[in-house]
Amino acid sequence: MPFSLGQFAQDKDIDGAIAEALGSLDAQSFSFRIEARGARWEPLQALRPEGPPLHPSDFEVVTVHDPALDRMRLSWRRSIIEPLSGNVVYDEIVVGNEGYITDPDVALGPQPAHAMKSDRLAAVRRQQYLLHPQLLVGDALRRQQNTGQQVIRSVGRQELDGAPHEVVEIDASPRPIRLLVALDSNQVSRLVTQENDFPCGDVEIVVAFSHWRRHGGLAFPYEVELSWEGEVIHRETRRRIELNPRLDPDAFVLPATHPFDPEVAERGLFNEQWVHRATGMSAPIILDAGEVVLVRLSPDVVSIGGGIHHSLAIILDSGVVVVDPPQHEARSLAVIKAVTARWPDKPITHLILTHHHHDHSGGIRAYAAIGAELIMAEGDRDFITKCLSRPHTIRPDTLAAAGIRSTIQTVGDEGLSLGDGEIQIYRISSPHCAENLVVYVRSVKLLFNADLFNPGLVPPGVAPPPHWLTYSRDFRRRIEALDLDIELLVGAHGVPEGGPYQELIDFTE
Ligand SMILES: [Zn+2]
User: Fold this and answer.
1) What is the three-class DSSP state of 506?
2) pLDDT tens, position by position, for the chain (509 residues)?
3) Any idea which architecture 293-508 has in CATH?
């Protein structure tokens, strides 16, 4: 602390009291261990785009930080609530630019112990810096000392909840990070920064800190809440904090590593909460395009697999209709390329969105950028319209560059058909999502859905998560009411070739 106080005292911008407050957050020469428990929420998996957010999981975590050697170990126990269920128990170990995950960390598509890729590593490190201002301030001071450049500075004063605060800004990527220090208590009340989201673009990340206590030379908040665009998505309560704990030398051993890739790391850094929101859902989210595998269902219909999420492409005389733009722009661009290579003389004229959830809508802007008409449920129009017009300056995408005005068509209770009835689109409700579009392709008697029933996802004889059974039973009732002649069901997850209608009956009996 004395060193950093000296450092601040020389900085005319930061007065003595604030310098002392920041000095009590300089973790460069300390290690610490924190036991906490908390919850995650997910705004873009709600029943409706306007919320309230889904509560997918709770967690207990023990974090051990040793910033002097740039190493951390996070021991997670997550209780998965909805839509998946069960517990996942794993550790994340980060040492410098290398990392390791000790056990399967998600319930959907779990992987055994593996070396951490650079995007995950960057996302893990950034979230820890946001939740622990000691790491952030310590790192800023180290950078300042090492480079001789000013990294941390006062940028003025601001009222927060009626109390005056000093605003301290730290240079960071993709955007500076601001700490709001209360002038009465000299404690950090808030952290404010921005990052990228698919499909929302530039999003504001705010962390609220309270219930500060001193442990030796360091101050710690016991209550921490991280918000995404004004919605709390991560809340944790610290129950036990230990300064300079005995560190087990084996705790930071990495059994395997990946070479650090700065480009991949930047992807994780810029989309940090996208990664943690997936982990909170206990679902793997891949930030790269993934493999694109076209599975021919008929000469005119292909299912597009290769990842966790599938799309469907149907050719009409006028062009190609694609169903669902999952994940993000990189995935959509790869799918658009594969579809265009398959049918080079046909434009993609329409994109049908099954529902607003972020893992299905994340790539929609790429279809807007090529001028495809966007078809969605009535209740999704406002959300998607906002996504299409929001600033995307952190990671400018193809739509940001194209500047095209998109055409939207919505589907209500009356449904919609394309290609003289070859494609019939119906809106159905579900306990998974209030409004879902399901797509019937007449020539092959196929019905495509997302998340309501996924042929091939649950192996025979394995008990599915209870929520999935609820969704599928409800789905069966809804499509029975549509009275369609269905032979093949294809889901946005599971096997891309789908399965016979009988699978739904067997699953829901
Ligand atoms: Zn969904």
Assistant:
1) helix
2) 223 333 444 444 567 888 889 999 999 999 999 999 999 999 999 999 999 999 999 999 999 999 999 999 999 999 999 999 999 999 999 999 999 999 999 998 899 999 999 999 999 999 999 999 999 999 999 999 999 999 999 999 999 999 999 999 999 999 999 999 999 999 999 999 999 999 999 999 999 999 999 999 999 999 999 999 999 999 999 999 999 999 998 999 999 999 999 999 999 999 999 999 999 999 987 899 999 999 999 999 999 999 899 999 999 999 999 999 999 999 999 999 999 999 999 999 999 999 999 999 999 999 999 999 999 999 999 999 999 999 999 999 999 999 888 999 999 999 999 999 999 999 999 999 999 999 999 999 999 999 999 999 998 888 899 999 999 999 999 999 999 999 999 999 999 999 999 999 999 99
3) 4-Layer Sandwich (3.60)
Q: How far is the CA of 4 from the centre of ligand 1 (A)?
A: 48
Segments in 202-328 forming alpha helices (H): 262-270, 272-281
Instruction: Give domain limits for the chain.
Output: 2-281, 293-508
Backbone angles phi, psi at 396, to 5 degrees: -60, 130
Give SS3 for 88: strand
**Distance, CA 46 to ligand 1 centroid (Å)?**
9
Q: What burial class does residue 104 get, using C-beta atoms within 10 Å of its C-beta: 0-12 exposed, 13-18 middle, 19+ buried?
A: middle
Task: Compute, in angstroms, the gap from residue 130 CA to the centroid of ligand 1.
Answer: 28
Instruction: Report, at the CATH architecture level, how domain 2-281 is classified.
Output: Clam (2.50)
Distance between Cα 348 and ligand 1 center (Å):
24
Ligand 1 centroid from CA 262, angstroms: 32
Tell how far the Cα of 375 is from the centroid of ligand 1, in angstroms: 17
Taking the centre of ligand 1 as the mean of its atom positions, its distance from the CA of residue 154, in whole angstroms, is: 43
Phi, psi dihedrals of residue 212, rounded to the nearest 5°: -75, 140
